[in-house]
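Open question from group meeting: does this chain pack into something compact, or does most of it stay loose? Before anyone orders reagents, we agreed to write out a predicted structure and look at it together. Recording both the input and the output here so the notebook holds the full record.
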Amino acid sequence: MSSKAPSVYRRIEQADNPHRDKEILRTLYYEAALSLREMAERLGVSAPTVKEWMDKHDIERRSRWEGAMLKQLQEGKGVDVTLSGDSGSSDTSKWSFQD
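Structure tokens returned:
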């Protein structure tokens, strides 16, 4: 989490409509790595409202796969990834966050 994330929570408290603020949305989504549902809970609105405002601000969302991998990493489970080359061989790696 970057240094931007803690300060965004102060901005949320001070803003009249924080769910409409592009910088707040970007910081919660990319820096704090929250899901739309988690963002909605913190902002006091529904997930579809968060999605609507992210769309209005052209904030690109993660794919379902990326979201699932991020959740696995956040839960400390790591992620099993199989990489296949042209030769048909596979290399399985375990990704995890480093402290």
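Observations to bring back to the group:
The longest helix spans residues 4-14.
Residues 14 and 47 are 21 Å apart (CA to CA).
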